[in-house]
């Protein structure tokens, strides 16, 4: 026991922060170690306390690689857990990537802290930039999860995350997927016990969904022009399907059918040189 305590207390002379949290502290805290050393309760507590101190020191030194391990090691001690969470929040703006923050946010939700999870997911969104053509980006599932989480918490959280989504995500298909999911059920239905929710579906003509709808329509228009600059005949069919998807989104706006008709007329004018493609557009959309 004394040797282990000594190793934990002088970890920085022996290990990197990542080694110290993921291997050393985890091994010391394991059930096997407790059995092998036949530790009584005070001894176990002493060891756990040293491991938590190590975890917090490592998280301060290298939040990117140690924050999640530190939270896990500090789970059973309220004050240490709070401290580890605060280290993550402080490091979020400078030293963490969106994928690390999303991972910790999902962990927080799993531990039963939905509002903290929401805060971390919001911070993760501010680091993300999803371009118009990145419809297979690895972060898409995290974005959809973050939006579902905020939707489940209620209208205020949804209203807080939508501007972040609009700023970070420029991919039309991802935006329309988020919009569709938000309009299918009322926000707050899976939220916090005791939190009131109206059970009313949200209108795409009012805030906060209006901003998301406008951004999605905008993304479809910009992506259409980008795709048409370098389109080859073998992609015509795929492009027509893309426009059909765009129409579904346009139609969520009150004057959507007029907007979409104008958009198609505009395309026919600008790209009239692409005769075969414009013929296909006319066949499908008039």
UniProtKB/TrEMBL annotation:
ZSWIM4-8 C-terminal domain segment(s): 100-277
Signal sequence annotation: 1-20
Keyword annotations from UniProtKB, A to Z: Metal-binding, Signal, Zinc, Zinc-finger
Bilayer-spanning residue ranges: none
PANTHER family found in the cross-reference section: ZINC FINGER SWIM DOMAIN CONTAINING PROTEIN 4, 5, 6 (PTHR22619), ZINC FINGER SWIM DOMAIN-CONTAINING PROTEIN 5 (PTHR22619:SF2)
Record protein name field: Zinc finger SWIM domain-containing protein 5
């Amino acid at each position: 026991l004394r040797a282990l305590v000594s190793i934990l207390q002088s970890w920085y002379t022996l290990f990197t922060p990542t080694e110290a949290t993921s291997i050393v502290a985890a091994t010391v805290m394991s059930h096997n170690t407790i059995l092998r050393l036949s530790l009584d309760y005070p001894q176990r507590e002493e060891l756990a306390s040293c491991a938590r101190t190590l975890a917090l020191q490592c998280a301060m030194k290298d939040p990117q690689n140690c924050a999640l391990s530190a939270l896990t090691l500090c789970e059973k001690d309220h004050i240490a857990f709070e401290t580890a969470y605060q280290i993550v929040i402080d490091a979020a703006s400078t030293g963490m990537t969106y994928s690390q923050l999303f991972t910790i946010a999902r962990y927080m939700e799993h531990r039963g802290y939905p509002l903290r999870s929401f805060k971390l997911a919001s911070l993760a969104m501010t680091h993300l930039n999803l371009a118009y053509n990145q419809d297979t980006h690895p972060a898409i599932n995290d974005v959809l999860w973050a939006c579902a989480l905020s939707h489940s918490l209620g209208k205020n959280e949804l209203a807080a995350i939508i501007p972040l989504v609009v700023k970070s995500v420029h991919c039309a298909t991802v935006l329309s997927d988020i919009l569709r999911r938000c309009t299918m059920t009322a926000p707050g239905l899976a939220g916090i016990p005791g939190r009131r929710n109206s059970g009313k579906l949200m209108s795409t003509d009012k805030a906060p969904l209006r901003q998301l709808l406008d951004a999605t329509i905008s993304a479809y228009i910009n992506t259409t022009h980008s795709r048409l600059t370098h389109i080859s005949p073998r992609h015509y069919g795929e492009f027509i399907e893309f426009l059909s998807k765009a129409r579904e989104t346009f139609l969520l706006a009150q004057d959507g059918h007029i907007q979409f008709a104008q958009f198609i007329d505009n395309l026919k004018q600008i790209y009239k040189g692409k005769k075969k493609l414009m013929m296909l557009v006319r066949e499908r959309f008039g």
